[in-house]
Design brief:
The protein is α/β, with parallel strands linked by helices and about 300 residues long. Helices cover about 35% and strands about 25% of the residues. The structure holds iron/sulfur cluster and magnesium ion. Magnesium ion binds near residues 42 and 43.
């Protein structure tokens, strides 16, 4: 059953496009990875689900959640969706958690809003903390965010996300701000919990291998467009788009220290200045004249003029 559907989504600011032709669906309980370099439109795509878009953004096309167009929800419907059906986990937990209130206040806020009494809400919060591997939950509930490490605080955010029993979790580079060991622990917990509860997940990362480990399907984004969508377990054998292949070919070991992105030769294309043809043409080793003139449509899993040749 389809839970979430993007159909020809286009988001622009003034005459500058940010997202174009984004068409993607997420089934109930499915995990879909959105992979691409910074500025490729991944965050904007998931933010459009909850209409967290920049001031003045113009949206065409549709985003449907359980069949209903989000544009028609109205303020109350949107609020209900954000507090109940869709949970968000962002890159930096400190930007989400109120620094002067306790972890318990943060965790119980939504439940209290739903009319749950304080004692029950705290009990549920403690249970949720234990489930994401936070020991000594009752002590943690009384602490403030600065007393917790980034990894612990991100677990708190995940515990809060799970508390509302959402149907969908939007995770935008949830571990980028953490050290490597902590990253692995936090991803493992998010993965385990969402599988156990059959919660759908949109997982944003610049790390293709991480997305493949956590997700059922992968959508690769470049310059505001999706260029390839494929099952995670066929990533290595069936990826056909030259950009996906380039991402796969650039191993993490080749990344210079301090640079977190796997490198693909050339400068990332911005959606704002994308050429009339294929968005990847400036960096593609296979580009020919028609690539620069004519935008490739999706054929099978990828949007590229030369799929057969590339294979
Ligand atoms: Fe490369 Fe052309 Fe395919 Fe674009 S359409 S990815 S430029 S071969
Ligand atoms: Mg981003």
């Amino acid at each position: 059953m389809t839970l979430l559907e993007f159909e020809n989504l286009r988001v622009s600011l003034g005459d500058r496009p940010i997202l174009r032709n984004v068409t993607l669906s997420v089934a109930a309980g499915e995990a879909v990875g959105l992979v691409g370099e910074s500025g490729s439109g991944k965050s904007m795509t998931v933010r459009s689900v909850v209409r967290l878009l920049p001031e003045g953004a113009a949206v065409t096309g549709a985003v449907r959640f359980e069949g209903a167009d989000i544009a028609s929800l109205g303020a109350a419907g949107l609020r209900r969706m954000r507090s109940r059906d869709v949970a968000m986990v962002f890159q930096d937990p400190r930007a989400v958690v109120n620094p002067v209130r306790t972890v318990g206040d943060f965790l119980t806020e939504v439940l209290r809003d739903q009319g749950v009494n304080r004692a029950d809400a705290l009990r549920k919060a403690a249970g949720s903390l234990s489930e994401v591997g936070v020991d000594d939950a009752s002590r943690r509930l009384a602490q403030r965010p600065y007393e917790l490490s980034g990894g612990l605080l991100q677990r708190v955010v995940i515990a809060a996300a799970l508390l509302t029993e959402p149907k969908l979790i939007l995770a935008d580079e949830p571990t980028t701000a953490l050290d490597v060991t902590t990253q692995e622990e936090v991803v493992a917990i998010l993965d385990e919990q969402r599988r156990r509860r059959s919660v759908a997940l949109m997982f944003i990362t610049h790390d293709l291998e991480l997305a493949a480990a956590v997700c059922d399907r992968i959508a690769v984004m470049y310059a505001g467009e999706i260029v390839e969508i494929l099952p995670a377990d066929r990533l290595h054998t069936e990826a056909r788009h030259p950009y996906t292949r380039a991402l796969l070919g650039s191993r993490p070991g080749t990344v210079p220290p301090g640079q977190r992105l796997r490198t693909v030769p050339g400068v990332p294309q911005s959606a704002l200045t994308a050429p009339p043809g294929c968005v990847f043409a400036d960096r593609c080793p296979h580009a020919e004249d028609r690539c620069r003139d004519t935008r490739p449509a999706f054929r099978g899993s990828a949007a590229c003029h030369l799929l057969e040749e590339v294979r």
